[in-house]
Amino acid sequence: MGPLGWSLMALVPLFWAASLAKATRTRSASPFRVGPGDPPGEGSVGVLIPARDEAANIVGCLRAARAALGDGPPILVLDDGSTDGTGALLVELQAQDPNLHVIVGGGAPLPAGWLGKPWACQRLAAAAADLHPDLAWLLFIDADVRLAPASVRAVVGYAERNQLDLLSGFGQLELRSFWEKVLQPAVAGLILGAHDFAKTNAPAKPDAELIANGQLMLARAASYRAAGGHQLVANNVLDDVGLAQAFVGRGLRYHIAYMTSVFSCRMYTSISEIWAGWNKNLFAGFGRSWTKVIVVVVGIFGVVLAPWLAAPLGLLGPLPLSIGLWGAVTVGLQLALRFYLDGVFDQDRRYSITMPLGWALLALLILSSAVSTQLGRTRWKGRALGPVG
């Protein structure tokens, strides 16, 4: 191998070493964090939850939300055409909580140009305006989110101190099954590794730097209504990122923050749910660019997976020893980063060794999402998404 080849190969362990250094530095120095112990906000807030076939989640979600809010503030839930018993559970819960408002909807076909979640959130916001027009803040959360005690006031306080119109955050990811622990960290690594919170939260920033998490979105009610609400992202499968882009494009202030002590979320419970969940929006996350998909997939194989093959083949097999040492050093750096991050995010460190399996599956999932979206075959919770924006 010539000098150019070795120079290119040297970039791979340097990349992982730089990633490890960045992760440790970000963990200790990032100002973009929210915790239940932070100074509480003063503005009134209501929690809005779209729920479609969430019988397994809705009771835990609402109990945690009420504990986080206290007795007074309202919680609004939209039963979005559920067929799994979610509606019956909501009737029981509403009888126990006078400040829980259940809106029934979703039986009719979606309006033209709307996807399910944006339409549900738009109706929730309209109901909140009718029932509680004095609310200063609207906190949208998913039904699989569990808010920590005293967390809502802390989130509002962060938004008020930073004079924000929209705030989103990344909470604690709950991983229980084997496939969750294998594949979900790879997806999270791809998303978080590709974005810098400092750039996203800068006063002037390009749309390409924006990142958001629809599991939790806090909007200033007046700004949300003036901008047009979820109508801005009516047919966007990435409604969270789209909403952030729309706010920023209108000169409104937006932040993304670490909120691992504010809320937790178990997104999916099986390999089939993980695949369907990410299959619907990964290609959209690449801007529907096949060029980006190919670059990332090739990068996964060259930067993540190749060292795992090179190490045994060079140290024990037919490849030169120097290749094996390159692979071993790179694998060591990868494991150090994964081991560190698993500790930071309170994950099972034993699964660090599954890193190559997770990233190989992620590469296949990215390709699957691209093909499915291109053909208009993506579906979620019984609804066809189609080749929409």
What's a quick, concise take on this entry?
The chain is an alpha/beta fold and 389 residues long. The protein has helices at 3-29, 58-69, 86-96, 116-131, 151-161, 178-193, 197-200, 221-227, 239-249, 271-279, 282-285, 290-315, 321-344, 355-374, and strands spanning 45-51, 75-80, 100-105, 137-141, 145-147, 166-170, 172-173, 216-220, 254-258, 263-265, 379-380, 383-384.
Textual characterization of the structure:
This protein folds into two domains: 3-26 and 285-384, no CATH class; 45-171 and 213-269, Spore Coat Polysaccharide Biosynthesis Protein SpsA, Chain A (Alpha-Beta Complex), CATH 3.90.550. The model has no long low-confidence stretch (mean pLDDT 92). Strands 3-2-1-4-8-6-9 form a seven-stranded mixed beta sheet, sandwiched between helices. It is an alpha/beta fold. Helix 2 links the parallel strand 1 (45-51) and strand 2 (75-80). The protein has helices at residues 3-29, 58-69, 86-96, 116-131, 151-161, 178-193, 197-200, 221-227, 239-249, 271-279, 282-285, 290-315, 321-344, 355-374; strands spanning 45-51, 75-80, 100-105, 137-141, 145-147, 166-170, 172-173, 216-220, 254-258, 263-265, 379-380, 383-384. The chain is built from 14 helices and twelve strands.
* Physical arrangement of strands within the biggest beta sheet: 3-2-1-4-8-6-9
Helix content class? 40-55%
* Head-to-tail CA distance between termini: 45 Å
Q: Identify the CATH class of the largest domain.
A: Alpha Beta
Order of helices and strands: HEHEHEHEEHEEHHEHHEEHHHHHEE
**How many distinct helices?**
14
Quaternary state of the chains: single chain
Kindly report the CATH topology of the largest domain: Spore Coat Polysaccharide Biosynthesis Protein SpsA, Chain A
Please compute the radius of gyration using only Cα atoms: 22 Å
The shape is: globular
Structural class per helix/strand content?
Answer: alpha/beta
Largest sheet: 7 strands, mixed
Mean pLDDT value: 92
Number of domains: 2
Low-confidence stretches: none
Please give the number of β-strands: 12
